Amino acid sequence: TPVPPAPGAVLLPGFARADADALIADAGSIAMRAAFRHLGTPGGAVMSVAMTNAGSLGWHSDRSGYRYVAADPLTGLPWPPIPATFLRIAASAAEAGGFPQFAPECVLINRYEPGARLSLHQDRDEGDLDAPIVSVSLGLPAVFLFGGLRRDDPVRRFRLSHGDVAVWGGPARLAFHGIAPLKPGIHPATGACRLNLTFRRVSRLP
Ligand code: MD3
Ligand code: FE
User: Fold this and answer.
1) Mutational test site, ligand 1, from 160, 177, 197, max ligand atoms within 8 Å of CB
2) Whose CA is nearest to atom 7 of ligand 1?
3) Does ipTM surpass 0.95 in this model?
4) Measured from the CB, is residue 111 less than 6 Å from ligand 1?
5) Residue with CA closest to ligand 1 atom 10
6) For the chain: N or C, fewer Cβ within 10 A?
7) How far apart are the first and last CA of the chain?
């Protein structure tokens, strides 16, 4: 049952549950070629979430800023291609959320271990802000913080569980959001961690 948490956003509880084992295995294969790493930030901090990417572009951050890059800075190699299982779930979720033409160029894979968090931020490094972001949650549950268009707007809390998918488009696309520190636990599919996939369109289609 789709749930609208905000205008432009659609939550699809359990939408990826049947594909979860395949998605987790594919994420593992990606990480064998492009390892999870803790990125630095322009402010000089190191992120508690470990990240890697698949696709023609990958999200990267260091002292000089946030940006999308075509090669993995750790190896100089292109990011691994987006697996077919990933593309299928992203396309069907985007369609369910009202975006039948979604063509992602990047999947950012976030790995949360106990205590890891993502502070309140906007995703605005993409050149195409008309395209939605599709997210898939796998493994341990997390508390998702969803604010408004201004950093100091009130924040609502949602639980994101294994197999939950969300489509963030329209007025929700530039909302501030984050993840509260992960509570320790063991999930049968991922063990002691949570994985999140975010599918992103970076460049504008002609
Ligand atoms: C709402 N990831 O990678 S997914 C991120 O669980 C990120 O790892 C979180 O925020 C995670 O940038 C949250 C849900 C999500 C992703 C992107 C959004 C919600 C969003 C972009 C705009 C609005
Ligand atoms: Fe985000």
Assistant:
1) 177
2) 178
3) yes
4) no
5) 178
6) C
7) 34
Q: Is 118 helix (H, G, I), strand (E, B) or coil?
A: strand
Ligand 2 mean position to 124 CA, how many Å?
A: 9
CA 98 – CA 108 distance, rounded (Å): 22
- Residue written as tokens 């599709």? 134
Residue nearest to atom 8 of ligand 1 (CA): 196
* Beta-bridge partner residues of 89: none
Query: Is the per-residue pLDDT at 4 higher than 80?
Result: no
Instruction: Say if ligand 1 is within 6 A of residue 118 CB.
Output: yes
Q: pLDDT tens digits, residue range 143-162? A: 999 999 999 999 999 999 99
- 2 pLDDT band, cuts 50/70/90, is confident
* Nearest Cα to Cα of residue 112 among 17, 14, 194: 194
With 70 as the cut, is the pLDDT of residue 3 above it?
no
* Dist. CA 60–CA 76, nearest whole Å: 13
Q: Give kind and range of the element (H or E) at residue 12.
A: strand 9-12
